[in-house]
Amino acid sequence: MAHCAVSHYRPLFAHGRRSTMSNSRLVYSTDTGRRCPECARPVAECRCKRSKAAQPQARAPQGDGVVRVGRETKGRKGKGVTVITGVPLAGDALADLAKRLKQRCGSGGTVTDAGAIEIQGDHRDALVAELTRLGYTVKRSGG
Questions:
Q1: Quick check: 127 and 105 in contact, CB under 8 A?
Q2: Distance from CA of residue 124 to its chain's centroid?
Q3: Which of 48, 113, 131, 142 could be a cystine partner for 70, CB 3.0 to 4.6 Å?
Q4: Residue range 77-102, pLDDT digits in tens
Q5: Which one, of 84, 83, 93, 88, lies nearest residue 60 by Cα?
Q6: Is the CB of residue 33 less than 8 Å from the CB of residue 42?
Q7: Side-chain half-sphere of 29: how many Cα atoms within 13 Å?
Q8: Is residue 124 a contact partner of residue 82, using CB atoms and an 8 Å limit?
Q9: What 3-state class would DSSP assign to 125?
Q10: What does pLDDT average to over the chain?
Q11: For range 107-122, the mean pLDDT
Q12: d(CA 115, CA 49)
């Protein structure tokens, strides 16, 4: 009786169990960007209800109509940034305003998830003047 060259080998892992591929999933990839935690599809192609409820809605924040310009150094190792809050814009309009203000100051910056614009450095006077010229009611906040 001849033995077959192919053996019926089953790999055993911890505790003598066979590996199952049902719990394998993509951990990180820059190919498609953000992925839904439920269905592992790209967020734009997601079909499950959880991710659609978790997507933020681009709405203008409700406030008192006053744009506040202040300076913060918290969490930045002493480096100051000028923070603009209360702008009644959202989404692309807020990003366009941030770009215009950064160009005006000749400095970098960002739009935060909370809808605030942060511009690197202390540019409060120039930003108050520019925002007033654009038709916003502006106040300096802080010290």
A1: yes
A2: 25
A3: 142
A4: 888 899 999 888 888 888 999 999 99
A5: 88
A6: yes
A7: 10
A8: yes
A9: helix
A10: 76
A11: 89
A12: 25
Token reading at 112? 């935060």
pTM over 0.70: no
Local structure of residue 55 (DSSP, 8 states): S
Confidence of residue 51 (pLDDT cuts 50, 70, 90): very low
Domains of the chain with bracketed CATH? 30-57 (no CATH), 66-140 (3.30.780.10)
Q: Which helix (H) or strand (E) holds 52?
A: helix 49-54
- Residue 107's alpha-carbon distances to 58, 82, 85, 99, 121, in angstroms, are 26, 11, 18, 10, 8
Residue in the block written with tokens 């150094």: 73
Q: Are 121 and 107 in contact (CB under 8 A)?
A: yes
Which run of H or E residues covers position 23?
none
Neighbours of 93 (CB within 10 A): 13
Bridge partners, 68 (sequence order): 85, 139
Q: CB 124: neighbour CB atoms within 10 A?
A: 19
Cα 107 to chain centroid, rounded: 21
Which single residue is written with the structure tokens 């909370």? 114
